[in-house]
Structures
1.
Amino acid sequence: MDEDVGSYDHTHRAFLQALLARQVITFEEAKPLLAAIQTANTPDRPTLPEDVSHEDFDNYIYTLNSAISPFDFEIRSTLHQTTKQKIYALVNTTSDALTQMATIHTADEIAFVKRVLDSMFETNNTQRAEVMAIDSFQALNLAKDPNRRESGSTQAQQNAGLTKTEAQKMLHSMVEEGWFELSGRGFYSLTPRALLELRGWLMDTYNDQAAEDDDEEEQYEKIKFCQACKEIVTLGQRCPKTECQARLHGHCVRNMFRAQGGREECPVCKTAWVDAPPVGEGAAKNARRSTNGTGGGGRRRTSGMNVDGAADESSDASEGA
Ligand SMILES: [Zn+2]
Ligand SMILES: [Zn+2]
């Protein structure tokens, strides 16, 4: 492949169309695609997938990014937090994912997704347990807005929420459209693409709000970034010192230690990075265990502290009235 770097031609257009159709791509997935596109362009000089180098791929991304930036699109990359694969995604740089979803989903469906996100990043994301995911049982309990039921406002009638079947369908759509992924243990979490698209929105929505909360969790930011790669951590490790905000992806821990000259300690508070508690669905198990084991942290509110919080909350709502 010896095309001029930077000149946008129909091979780029073909690659962009492929990307539009699939939303995310890895280098390995791009190789056969680019080979086919190149071969179609110059049939007398067929290109094999092995012939496509990472540099060729990077050149395509570079040229495409120059071409699509006036339309507020950008191809961004991130590492998948579980598979560690580098994922490239076509990201809309001006509108967030919720705005994009609104073009194909109803207001009730979007409101449901918002409740699911609130659960992921508020209810299931506390100083004690940073689950940042939601199991399907808890998600389906959010089909109807628990706060709307007793509010009695005119909005309450208008915004009826979803039935459980509709909610189940919507969760399925979120997976199909590439926003949510479902783990083997039945937890929904955000995909790398969703994290790329929602980065700004998540910070605006959950970090600003945290500052207005009560003193106890002042300074506590809901959305935290990896000390090594600076991407959002929804799956990884947290500093063994509970109050410390330092987080690392599992695959970034070694890089961090190396950068510190081999010192296996927290880059922020210098606590030894030993038995670092998990961030992600692994924290849900811990939350349950510690609740059962210690009889539930003293005077602290237990509602919303773990993934079983949904049940607590609905009972709170009826008792509190
Ligand atoms: Zn990282
Ligand atoms: Zn620390």
Note: The two ends are 69 Å apart (CA to CA).
2.
Amino acid sequence: MGNGVQGGNLQENNKTVIWRPHEEKYRTSEWYTGSGQITTADEGLSFEVTAVYQLKSEVKVIKDIFAISNDTLGNIYRPRGRCIAVVDQTVAQLYGEKIEGYFQAQEISLELMVVRAWESDKTPETVHRILGFLGKDGCDVSRNEPVLVIGGGVLSDVAGLACALQHRRTPYIMIGTTIIAAIDAGPSPRTCTNGTQFKNSIGVYHPPVLTLVDRQFFATLDMGHIRNGMAEIIKMAVTDDKELFELLEEYGQELIKTRFATMDASEDLAKIADLIIYKALYAYMKHEGTNMFETYQDRPHAYGHTWSPRFEPAVKLMHGHAVTIGMAFGATLSKELGWLSEQECQRIINLSSKLGLSVYHPVLEDTTIMIEGQKNMRRKRGDGGLWAPLPTTIGVCDYAQEVEPDLLNQAVIAHKEYCSQLPNQGAGEQMYLRDLGLE
Ligand SMILES: NC(=O)c1ccc[n+]([C@@H]2O[C@H](COP(=O)([O-])OP(=O)(O)OC[C@H]3O[C@@H](n4cnc5c(N)ncnc54)[C@H](O)[C@@H]3O)[C@@H](O)[C@H]2O)c1
């Protein structure tokens, strides 16, 4: 290549060359491609490059991923002769034998790293350890060899980040084994580790090339994590899908009780569970998957995530509870702004509360933390405004750009008053992180 003929020089005038690399001949990745243009300046000593990068990210809800008869993973890894996998420690304890048995039966060699992935392990050190496994001193993964990541949201964030850093971009396939990982963190392009004061602040955009969702994994989740995962489904329901909201109102409690229809559940409930998972994934990826680099801030899935990244680590809440507190407060704020009716605001708060999720925490009254949270978020979201998604009706949201301290305080007071008459004054069940010894 180099003279613009053999490669992909599609168009040329005096100043601009549109260049598309030779697709068939030189392409090495199944998932990533790109093209660009180069424009020279009149003085002949400078030029500007504009490039477009394209990626493919597939999502599938499937059954029994590790049943010997299921060829989904076999077909991907057999031609490569091996599978490099990073697996959450608890998942390895519960499913390790099954996973190893599967690859053995498929005659694919498995190179496996087991990682403890508690929230407190979401650190650059954990990312480094995974890089050690992937790199030259470990299994020396190729830049086109998809790493298999199996675990919860913490693992998907740190292992996804390690994959992004290895060879600058190594693909990975995600099997989310918690609800949060299955429908939100897993398919998400946002890989990360925690910073010192702000969750998830260090990372890169690198979605899995394939996300496989099998709700059978939820059978071993404890109730706390089932409930926790419901928060992210409620988020998509409130901001994007009214029908999903109504399904949660009708079946939410039963789904929690049956661990998402994996225990003592009818066929009908199992179908509802798949529908709810699919709808949540679709709503999420419709916005997040088509805006992979968060270039645009009309992001409904940021609902409940404006103040919580600051207060979640401060009071050691489980992520889902921090998000529902943020969402419930956001609903009240929207009502105070005159955007949302009182009746719909209460419906949103009541759904979370009925499912045992937290809708209130005294940390909301800590003005310093709340204002600091807004400041951090404004900086993170690009200085243009706060871009806080708030529901305007169930299934639709708009974005608040400014929340002055007076309005913030007024909304906190109104929210506290409403929540004080809810069970436990709006506190949820098992709301604190257990890996830090809190309950
Ligand atoms: N990147 C994103 O867009 C995004 C989105 C949402 C959440 N997150 C992140 O995800 C994290 C929360 O995810 P999470 O709730 O999955 O937490 P987690 O990864 O800590 O998993 C929860 C616990 O469940 C265990 N576990 C995993 N699968 C299991 C199974 N099938 N059976 C029994 N136990 C199992 C894990 O070992 C862990 O102890 C937070 O750090 C949050 O910031 C990221």
Note: Confidence is low (pLDDT under 50) at residues 1-6.
